[in-house]
Design brief:
By secondary structure, the chain is an alpha/beta fold. The protein folds into 2 domains: 2-160, Nitrogenase molybdenum iron protein domain (Rossmann fold, 3-Layer(aba) Sandwich); 164-268, Nitrogenase molybdenum iron protein domain (Rossmann fold, 3-Layer(aba) Sandwich), CATH 3.40.50. Helices cover 48% and strands 15% of the residues. The strands form 2 sheets. A 4-stranded parallel β-sheet has the order 2-1-3-4. The chain has a 4-stranded parallel β-sheet with strand order 6-5-7-8, sandwiched between helices. Helix 4 links the parallel strand 3 (81-85) and strand 4 (104-108). It is globular. The chain starts with a helix and ends with a helix. The relative contact order is 0.13.
């Protein structure tokens, strides 16, 4: 039932955006432009050699506020499917810059932090359904690739949970974008902060007070928002500082998850 509903949503979205199932006599492959590495690396893993994927933003950049460049508009103009997150408001401008003729702009509906393994698997299923709709001749291929990918992500998630068994109940302060990731592995996030420019002297003082009251042991920064944002806070609390990524690095979700776990384990010592 879930896949049927998603299929109908895709049909309606395609009709609204002027899209249609993949049929391009000038191309042998479906081409996808993905706004972030979280989307793009899933599309690569599930699409395999049947799909060409372009990732618009570097994984170290913050994808919430983006200036549209000519190269980004060009990637859109050459793609059959443009995939983005729902919170990337700048994509509306990209539509105007790149045009919508015979292209389908689709926002991923999967909610939550895609670095959490079970949410990442949900996102992979959604993208698999999109590819299968647009390229129905290769639907079985995409489903098989998704099944293998989901198994690897699930296994990595189980291993990560074992590695972070000591994290349960450990009190931390973190960047607001990674709070749910940390909580999914048992950390207790007692306070959060946003971008570096939002961490005013007043906010810092408040976090220090909260951290001391709760005996916070670790301050965790989001790499995409600033690797040194929480350094002063950690120093004031005599706590460890860890920096983890909220987006896939190096083309591998599994390796990025392992690296995040390794950094958090080091901070737990």
């Amino acid at each position: 039932m879930k896949k049927t509903i998603l299929f109908l949503v895709l049909v309606l979205s395609a009709a609204q955006a002027g899209g249609a199932p993949f049929s391009d006599p000038n191309k042998k492959k479906l081409t996808v432009a993905a706004t972030t590495s979280n989307i793009g690396e899933i599309a690569k893993a599930v699409g395999g050699d049947k799909v060409d994927v372009e990732i618009m933003l570097k994984p170290l950049s913050c994808p919430s506020n983006v200036d549209i460049t000519p190269s980004m508009a060009q990637r859109v103009s050459k793609s059959n499917l443009i995939l983005s997150h729902k919170w990337e408001k700048w994509v509306d401008k990209l539509k105007r810059e790149g045009g919508e003729r015979v292209r389908l702009f689709k926002q991923a509906e999967t909610e939550g932090n895609w670095m959490i393994p079970y949410i990442h698997i949900r996102a992979a299923e959604e993208i698999m359904n999109m590819l299968s709709y647009l390229d129905i001749d290769n639907a079985k291929y995409y489903e098989e690739k998704y099944t293998r990918y989901a198994y690897n992500v699930r296994f990595a998630g189980e291993e990560a949970r074992k590695e972070l068994a000591a994290a349960y109940g450990v009190k931390v302060i973190s960047n607001d974008k990674i709070r749910d990731f940390l909580e999914s592995f048992g950390f207790e996030v007692v306070a959060v902060y946003g971008k570096p420019e939002d961490l005013t002297a007043k906010k810092l003082k408040s976090l220090i007070t909260e951290g001391k009251k709760n005996n916070v042991r670790i301050v965790v920064d989001n790499l995409q928002a600033g690797a040194s944002t929480g350094r002063e806070l950690a120093e004031n609390l005599d706590a460890k500082q860890a920096v983890i990524s909220n987006f896939v690095l190096g083309g591998s979700f599994v390796n990025t998850l392992k690296d995040n776990v390794s950094r958090l384990k080091q901070a737990l010592k």
